[in-house]
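quick q for whoever's on today - can somebody do inverse folding on this one?? i tried earlier but teh output was garbage lol. tokens:
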């Protein structure tokens, strides 16, 4: 349990969140901030967000029963709050809008420390890049980072509460899926270092066009930055660099100096030699290598030595849902956290290039939020699958029917299954799998392709 004191009193929280203290019924300090009552523990501040599926103000009593010592709520819900807090040892802070109040609280929290902040955005690769950079910097000094993928308008504020007086660095993801969000996220962490990994066809349904998506993500480059980075392979780099208010450094196998050698170890990741120092990255795929090269470039500019970089890279752990390899009677590559066309193509290409004695199998879920590009993207994935040399393909989700049609027309020679019913896919995978198989799981978050893991790993 966290014992680090975040806030000493309700009045301190109110001042930082630009609210007012309505009840001051607890003298206990706050040691964590949560937005789900189920996550509340003794010492928590519960932020009652008004969501589309549920209203956090209905769960205040549950949060208090689990140990919450303070609640941040909306002024319009005062009566509902008072009914649940009557006689309880819990303080109440009121703001007009709890999401904005949470963001103000986070913004004020970050400003209390002198940590150098690294902000990372991009259509894919944010989390792996964040994990490697944070691992390297932590070799040098205490480093806070985004837990999991808490990178949204409410996720980023929760992430920054990991910063404390000992933190010298903070590495945070900035994830946007609507126009206007980057300015808010930037204002919360005020990064000194900004990274744009790439811009791909993700969230197009919400942005409307790739141009709007590019324009939003490039806002991470502000005039106050000390360093700015972009991938040499980003299709829109020239447009982004041209408009950037600061000099932007490119990273990649061609632009990053000091890369003496790079060796592909297949499922075991990569062996690199940087400025004479050998290092091992235990993350498979070309995409993971590029994330690592980004981290090496950034860490070098932030004063890390090649030896510190090697140690940090070696300590980087595989992340669930992001090309994580499970070895066993059946070997599984779990890349199921999310998917767009570019990331799906990259992981299928990685599987294609792996030397494997047994059969190669793909279990792919639909790529969501691609808007008008959805049909084209799924057809192109079908074309990629058709030339990948895999043995069995299991396609799940109505959008994946486009890939199925492409493969049928191309007379795919392996076993080909399509269904919009997950239980049918699970049954077919269970019947088809055999010892020595390699299985790739990939799909958008909504498809939850990781549900196949228990079936594949049960032997």
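ok took a stab at it. sequence:
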């Amino acid at each position: 349990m966290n014992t680090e004191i975040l806030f000493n009193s309700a009045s301190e929280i109110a001042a930082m969140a630009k609210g007012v203290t309505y009840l001051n019924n607890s003298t206990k300090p706050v040691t964590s901030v949560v937005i789900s009552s189920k996550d509340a523990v003794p010492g928590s501040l519960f932020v009652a967000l008004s969501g589309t599926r549920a209203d956090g103000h209905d769960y205040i009593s549950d949060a208090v029963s689990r140990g919450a010592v303070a609640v941040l709520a909306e002024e319009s819900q005062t009566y509902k709050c008072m009914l649940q807090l009557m006689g309880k040892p819990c303080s109440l802070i009121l703001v007009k809008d709890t999401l904005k109040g949470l963001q103000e609280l986070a913004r004020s929290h970050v400003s209390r420390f002198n940590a150098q902040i690294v902000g990372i955005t991009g259509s894919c690769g944010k989390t792996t890049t964040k994990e490697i950079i944070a691992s390297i910097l932590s070799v040098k000094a205490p480093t806070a980072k985004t837990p999991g993928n808490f990178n949204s308008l409410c996720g980023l504020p929760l992430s920054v509460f990991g910063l404390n007086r000992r933190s010298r660095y903070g590495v945070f993801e900035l994830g946007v899926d609507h126009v206007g969000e980057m300015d808010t996220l930037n204002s919360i962490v005020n990064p000194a270092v900004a990274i744009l990994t790439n811009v791909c066809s993700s969230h197009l349904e919400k942005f409307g066009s790739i141009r709007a998506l590019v324009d939003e993500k490039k806002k991470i480059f502000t005039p106050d930055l000390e360093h700015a980075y972009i991938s040499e392979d980003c299709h829109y780099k020239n447009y982004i660099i041209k408009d950037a208010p600061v000099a932007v450094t490119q990273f990649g196998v061609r632009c990053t100096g000091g890369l003496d050698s790079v060796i592909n170890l297949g499922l075991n990741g990569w062996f690199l030699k940087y400025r004479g120092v050998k290092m091992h990255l235990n993350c498979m795929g070309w995409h993971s290598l590029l994330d690592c090269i980004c981290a090496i470039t950034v860490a070098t500019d932030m004063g890390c030595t090649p030896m510190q970089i090697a140690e940090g890279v070696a300590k980087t752990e595989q992340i669930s849902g992001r090309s994580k390899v499970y070895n066993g009677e059946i070997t599984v590559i779990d890349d199921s956290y999310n998917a767009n066309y570019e990331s799906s193509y990259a992981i299928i290409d990685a599987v294609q290039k792996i030397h494997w004695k047994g059969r190669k199998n793909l279990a792919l879920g639909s790529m969501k939020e691609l808007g008008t590009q959805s049909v084209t993207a799924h057809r192109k994935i079908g074309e990629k699958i058709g030339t990948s040399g895999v043995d069995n393909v299991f396609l799940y989700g109505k959008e994946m029917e486009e890939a199925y049609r492409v493969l049928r027309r191309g007379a795919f020679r392996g076993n080909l299954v399509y269904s919009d019913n997950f239980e049918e896919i699970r049954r077919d995978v269970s019947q088809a799998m055999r010892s020595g198989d390699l299985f790739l799981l990939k799909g958008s978050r909504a498809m939850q392709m990781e549900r196949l893991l228990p079936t594949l790993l049960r032997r």
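fwiw The longest strand covers residues 116-121. also The chain has a mean pLDDT of 95. so keep that in mind when u check it
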